[in-house]
Specification:
about 160 residues, iron ion transmembrane transporter activity, mainly alpha, 6 helices, transmembrane helix, iron, Ccc1_fam, single chain, ion transport
Amino acid sequence: MGVGAVQENVKTMIITGFAGLFAGACSMAIGEFVSVYSQLDIERAQMNRDKATGGQNREHEEGNKEQLPNPFQAAGASSIAFSLGAIVPILAAAFIANHKVRLAVIVAAVSLALVAFGVIGAFLGRSPIVKSCARVLIGGWMAMAITFGLTKLIGSTGLEI
């Protein structure tokens, strides 16, 4: 949406879309890895403190080790989830020449994808579907609107970076 705010060329939208997909997937994966690894360190430290003070028995300690978070799995899952979401607007943009129609199709395709992701998240988390879909959809619309608006503003004012 940001590129579409200032650039009508479909090739430019697709190239920058893929660049954003890869950059975002890497950023999400690295952020998730660092976050989950920090959590893992905290949990291991707590287990060591419990062990030193006699606060846990052996069976409980082994069970906790099996439930420890895996930073590599978290990073991979985050990267894949971001990529799946980011490919939707790229594919929607790829086949439409008219700029205004392309933007409308992107909004429609992304909206459908957001609803689908909301349903999947609600199902996996066993939470209310309507609340989950509304939250994901409204958040996605806000992100698209902010990105479009800020890029349009910067592009129209001729701000040089």
